[in-house]
Write a structure and sequence with these properties.
single chain; 94 residues; 1 helix; 6 strands; 49% strand; elongated
Length: 94
């Protein structure tokens, strides 16, 4: 199955408590680097304070080799995570 722009996927992440009670700091470890940001707990698959879960993401572009997914929240990085299509398929259970 091909990933399409606009599709929603769950991307695995590590979570720790953010500086405020209503946010979490997350890390997504992708093959091309780590994405770090702050998100509201309702954007996580499970509302955990710390540990492993997944973050809701939206596919913005996809082809045979790469996928760009927009991650919600606040980050000093680019809001899109670009990674190999094979990695996101495997990570998102596609």
């Amino acid at each position: 199955m091909t990933l399409q722009a606009g599709e929603h996927v769950w991307i695995p992440c590590e979570v720790v408590q953010g500086p405020f009670s209503d946010e979490r700091q997350i890390w997504v470890s992708a093959p091309d680097g780590t994405w770090v940001g702050y998100v509201a707990p309702h954007l996580l698959r499970e509302n955990v304070v710390a540990g492993k879960t997944a973050i809701a993401a939206t596919i913005v572009a996809a082809d045979e080799r790469t996928v760009s997914a927009r991650l919600p929240g606040q980050t000093p990085h680019i809001r899109c995570l670009t990674c190999p299509t094979s990695w996101i398929r495997e990570s998102a259970g596609r």
